[in-house]
Design brief:
This protein is mainly alpha-helical and about 280 residues long. The protein has a single domain, classed as Hypothetical protein af1432, CATH 1.10.3210. The chain has 16 helices and no strands. α9 crosses α12. The protein is globular, with a radius of gyration of 19 Å.
């Protein structure tokens, strides 16, 4: 018999999860602020010594590549060296990497999430939308499964076992049989509780079931997971999307008749690089 969890049950038991990093929300808010400055980003980075160290480390590596031998300690110089886009990516990745380590979820879960985040970023270039929002959507798309594993570990294992025994079983159906709710719906509730932007909430909720007219972030997250599965990245993941919505591809302007080898190569290479931040 399924658990028949209510929305209030999900939100209440989310206290068992690690605290969601506020820097993620703060950064996403600056993207929507036309008055946001480089100084505001530097101030945001400076609030977290782990993120600061990572930004300076990458900036120093860039300086060494340019035969600049000095030890960079100035964040303004570091940002100018590696660029705003790279700094934002580092902030998001390091913050969520800390969250992942505290979550005590298996490495395959986060390897898959990182790969989908990177794929969403790359697809965002094609669809002309925010790569930062896309990265967050990809990294958090399966966050409902983290809740399941932490709050109801026995039932979560029952779902895993049913998927292993029946390869044709859809993960959404398997979860609803046991929990009475699926990880997409739980992810929506978590994202809302963490006050993430509405477009991110929608991408987490609908990445398995894209219904036109969909938001571009929904489409990018959906296609990103399909691409990651096709490339067999983090192959042990059992949350595979079983179909590709043609409407999602059309919405972001992805044409499968084009030569996509370069795109797939970038996704694979960057996934391996970003995974090193998480583990």
């Amino acid at each position: 018999m399924p658990l028949h969890l209510s929305e209030s049950d999900v939100v209440r038991r989310s206290a068992l999860l690690p605290a969601f990093p506020t820097v993620v929300n703060d950064l996403l808010q600056t993207l929507d602020d036309d008055n946001a400055t480089i100084g505001a980003l530097i101030q945001l980075v400076g609030r977290d010594p782990v993120i600061t160290a990572r930004v300076l480390s990458i900036a120093n590596a860039a300086a060494m590549g340019g035969r600049n031998q000095r030890d960079l300690r100035d964040m303004q110089v570091a940002v100018s060296l590696i660029g705003l886009a790279k700094v934002r990516e580092i902030v998001l990745a390091v913050a969520l990497a800390e969250f992942s380590r505290e979550s005590r979820m298996g490495s395959h879960f986060w390897e898959h999430s990182v790969a989908v985040g990177v794929a969403a970023q790359e697809l965002a270039r094609i669809g002309h939308l925010s790569q930062d929002f896309s990265l967050v959507c990809g990294l958090l798309h399966d966050i409902g499964q983290l809740w399941m594993a932490r709050c109801h570990p026995l039932e979560f294992q029952l779902v895993r076992m049913s998927l292993e025994q029946d390869e044709g079983l859809d993960v959404i159906d398997a979860e609803r049989r046991v929990f009475g709710i699926d990880h997409c719906a739980i992810g929506r509730l978590l994202a809302m509780a963490w006050r993430l932007p509405a477009s991110v909430v929608a991408a987490i909720e609908h990445h398995h079931d894209v219904q036109p007219p969909a938001d571009k972030l929904v489409a990018v997250t959906h296609v990103a997971e399909v691409v990651v599965n096709a490339l067999d990245l983090a192959a042990h993941q059992k949350s595979r999307v079983t179909h590709l919505a043609a409407s999602a591809c059309e919405l972001i302007g992805l044409n499968w008749s084009d030569d996509l080898g370069y795109l797939f190569g970038r996704i694979e290479a960057r996934s391996h690089y970003l995974t090193r931040i998480f583990f």
